[in-house]
């Protein structure tokens, strides 16, 4: 893999190999020959670094963006893609490094500055006003092409749409358009504002397969006219179908790049294998300070917790026909890119969201009709990922938060009267057992650190008659010490014979803890594997959308 220069990008023949091995059956695009070739990239990101408290989001990342190419940024959650795009869009400022546009150093302090430099961004969720017409939305923020009247905007729109091969009614209310049509409006708006670079950030995440194909075709027409397109996606099949160049980020660093010649030389299958290796690594043993996954508890042959053909209605990501079982003492990992239905699924299991169809079985009994409180009483526990917004009441003392799901129950309440001594004794015991660092049990829980709030949640959900525990992103936002402590608690729960569902977007966490791993994508289980040799590669392939 090497940096491609202008000579490398000339004279490339059309690549027509069909995507196979689980990829879309789409012809790989060719680099545009219509746009003039340049000796330097349109944009050069040179050793860009960006740090947040406790996190290095970008670590000396260098990327070249060429006109006439779809440049794909790939990487799992936390790889640094969004931060890099935010810097280029004027939303974030880099701590170190330089941005060069047409070979000249540029400063991008605001989104308006990015627009003035010819950089337009289309985000996953449309940034349009649904009650306004298409033409009115395009006029927001300044009349394009110096023509403020609606008739002029409509005429300019018609010409741009005809050139790009799309059809959008300028008088249609945006709220009546499909998601794909709204994205087309945003692209038209960017083109009319003289953008030369279009950033499409997770633009296919909410689209139907047909909508994604239409967007891919539109990207091809844009680069054929000399635009540069930066396409951020989690889906490797889309990257190989639409991209001319692929840059892979992992843990904030650039770990590799496949240019047009590399993709031509490797072909679809080998390119897929190489990108998966770059995205997820080859390590199979635990690293320093980590403990390799070892199944510690003999598993019963019959699942104690079963989900059968479960579907959950949701306007954004419906969950469809999910089935699996978890045995006592087993940790079942549910991996996947965030936003693919995991939260909706977890809330349905906990009773916080209605089930459209299917069954939830605990020890042979169907519990899908029960309230959250009744599910808890028979042993189903849920550790939410929203510690402050959902899991606790920040202004309430720790002692009361530890009983938040048992208010009114004996022995802590008697005929509606609070039993202060019983509540205090219970709180002191759990604070001690789970090492919750607090000035006292009457301290408002919102004043504690994230790690100590998480300890309190674990104390509440793992004690008593728990039989099944659902963990949703249990270590999200924690420091290294509290991550380790939380993972130890999850292992200990399984060692005691609890059935554990671990929902996490951290692949390392899933691989470290789970006995079996399933991957959820767009609300469906796309595959399940034992956590044995080669599991990393298999799970990575499923997460990237190229294997089931």
Automatic annotation (TrEMBL):
This is Ribose import ATP-binding protein RbsA. PANTHER family: CARBOHYDRATE TRANSPORT ATP-BINDING PROTEIN MG119-RELATED, GUANOSINE IMPORT ATP-BINDING PROTEIN NUPO. Residues 43-276, 294-547 form the ABC transporter domain. Residues 1-21 are annotated as: Disordered. Keywords: ATP-binding, Hydrolase, Nucleotide-binding. Residues 1-11 have a biased composition (Basic and acidic residues). Its EC number is 3.6.3.17. It holds the Pfam family ABC_tran. One of its GO terms (molecular function) is ATP hydrolysis activity. Belongs to the ABC transporter superfamily. InterPro entries: AAA+_ATPase, ABC_carbohydrate_import_ATPase, ABC_transporter-like_ATP-bd, ABC_transporter-like_CS, P-loop_NTPase. The lineage of its organism: Bacteria, Pseudomonadati, Pseudomonadota, Alphaproteobacteria, Hyphomicrobiales.
């Amino acid at each position: 893999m090497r940096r491609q220069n202008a000579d490398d990008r000339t004279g490339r023949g059309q690549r027509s190999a069909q995507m196979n091995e689980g990829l879309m059956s789409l012809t790989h695009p060719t680099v545009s020959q219509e746009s003039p070739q340049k000796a330097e990239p349109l944009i050069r990101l040179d050793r860009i670094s960006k740090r947040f408290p406790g996190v290095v989001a970008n670590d000396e990342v260098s990327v070249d963006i060429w006109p006439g190419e779809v440049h794909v940024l790939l990487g799992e959650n936390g790889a640094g893609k969004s931060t890099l795009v935010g810097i280029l869009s004027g939303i974030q400022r880099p701590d170190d490094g330089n941005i060069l546009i047409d070979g000249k150093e540029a400063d991008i302090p605001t989104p308006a500055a990015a627009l003035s430099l010819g950089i337009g961004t289309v985000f996953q969720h449309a940034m349009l006003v649904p009650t306004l017409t298409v033409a009115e939305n395009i006029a927001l923020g300044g009349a394009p092409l110096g023509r403020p009247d609606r008739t002029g905007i409509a005429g300019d729109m018609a010409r741009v749409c005809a050139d790009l091969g799309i059809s959008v009614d300028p008088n249609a209310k945006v709220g009546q358009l499909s998601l794909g049509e709204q994205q087309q409006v945003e692209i038209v708006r960017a083109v009319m504002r003289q953008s030369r670079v279009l950033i499409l950030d997770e633009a296919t995440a909410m689209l139907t397969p047909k909508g994604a194909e239409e967007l891919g075709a539109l990207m091809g027409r844009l680069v054929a006219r000399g635009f540069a397109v930066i396409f951020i996606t989690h889906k490797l099949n889309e990257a190989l179908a639409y991209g001319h160049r692929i840059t892979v980020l992992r843990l904030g660093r650039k770990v590799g790049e496949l240019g047009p010649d590399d993709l031509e030389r490797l072909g679809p299958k080998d390119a897929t294998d190489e990108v998966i290796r770059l995205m997820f690594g080859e390590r199979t043993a635990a690293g320093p300070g980590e403990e390799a996954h070892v199944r510690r508890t003999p598993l019963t042959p019959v699942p104690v917790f079963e989900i059968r053909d479960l579907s959950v209605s949701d306007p954004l990501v419906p969950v469809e026909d999910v089935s699996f079982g978890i045995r006592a003492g087993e940790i079942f990992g549910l991996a996947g890119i965030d936003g693919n239905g995991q939260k909706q699924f977890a809330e349905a299991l906990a009773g916080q969201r209605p089930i459209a169809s299917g069954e939830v079985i605990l020890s042979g009994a169907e519990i899908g009709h029960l309230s959250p409180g009744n599910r808890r009483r028979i042993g189903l526990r849920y550790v939410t990922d929203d510690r402050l917004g959902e899991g606790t009441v920040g202004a309430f003392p720790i002692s009361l938060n530890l009983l938040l799901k048992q208010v009114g129950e004996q022995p802590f309440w008697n005929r509606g009267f609070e039993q202060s001594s019983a509540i205090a004794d219970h709180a002191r015991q759990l604070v001690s057992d789970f090492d919750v660092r607090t000035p006292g049990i009457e301290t408002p829980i919102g004043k504690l650190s994230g790690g100590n709030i998480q300890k309190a949640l674990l104390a509440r959900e793992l004690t008593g008659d728990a039989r099944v525990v659902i963990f949703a992103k249990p270590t999200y936002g924690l420091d290294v010490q509290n991550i380790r402590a939380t993972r130890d608690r999850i292992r200990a729960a399984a060692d005691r014979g609890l059935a554990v569902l671990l929902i996490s977007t951290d692949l390392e966490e899933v691989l470290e803890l789970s006995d079996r791993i399933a991957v959820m994508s767009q609300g469906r289980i796309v595959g399940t594997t034992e956590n044995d040799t080669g599991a990393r590669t298999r799970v990575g392939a499923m997460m990237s959308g190229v294997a089931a």
